[in-house]
Amino acid sequence: MSNDSTTPGYLTPTGTVPLYDEALERELSRWVRAVTGLPAGMVRPRWTPEQAAQPAASVNWCGFGIIGVEPDASPALVQGDDSSELWRHETIECMASFYGPGSQGVAGMFRDGISVPQNNLAMTGITGLSLADCSGLTSFPELINNQWVRRYDVTVRLRRKVIRTYGIKPLAEAGQITFGEEP
């Protein structure tokens, strides 16, 4: 079945697609770890099919996850020589919850570290995402195993340009069509 505009039917994107789902979450977790200096295994996905045991209350760690993906209002369709590209900007909203006795300091280090241009550039090179803005630190102490654990949340909004290629041929390739005349 054809996947271009020379035949009727639905079109699906061709070529590479941006990171989504677990692949994107994995890269964002590496980013959080790199900016905060937290050890391996201490930046964890917020929602997984099987939850790992939480670290002890005496350990600094982070739970991280994507909480929203907002597209811009109107994508652009850019015609090329042999196909068209759909250009759209997305805002990806993430929440990082920092736990442990030093959670406020680690959350502050993260908030400040993501504003450093070199850190932003490193993430952009891998994911195509760039920092849009960041919330302040919000305290949300959590009762875990009958013990209050310090917790500070930070919401981060990241932006990226998404380009999807479709097999939409230029009108010049459609052949000669005369409207209003019968064949």
Describe this entry's structure for a reader.
The chain has 183 residues and is an alpha+beta fold. The chain has a single domain, classed as STM4215-like, CATH 3.30.2000. 21% of the residues lie in helices and 34% in strands. It has helices spanning 21-36, 103-113, 117-127; strands at residues 43-45, 61-71, 76-79, 84-99, 130-134, 138-139, 142-144, 147-149, 151-166. The strands form two sheets. Strands 1, 2, 3, 4, 5, 6 and 9 form a seven-stranded mixed sheet that branches. It is elongated, with a radius of gyration of 23 Å. The mean pLDDT is 90.
Beta-strand level of the residues, as a percent range? 25-35%
Uncertain segments: none
Helix/strand order: HEEEEHHEEEEE
> How far apart are the termini?
28 Å
CATH domain class: Alpha Beta
Question: Secondary structure elements and their pairing?
Answer:
Blueprint: H1 21-36, E1 43-45, E2 61-71, E3 76-79, E4 84-99, H2 103-113, H3 117-127, E5 130-134, E6 138-139, E7 142-144, E8 147-149, E9 151-166
Parallel strand pairs: 1-2
Antiparallel strand pairs: 2-4, 3-4, 4-9, 5-9, 6-9, 7-8
Helix pairs in contact: 1-3
Short description:
The protein has 183 residues and is α+β, with helices and mostly antiparallel strands.
Features:
183 residues; alpha+beta; STM4215-like; two-stranded antiparallel sheet; 3 helices; 9 strands; 34% strand
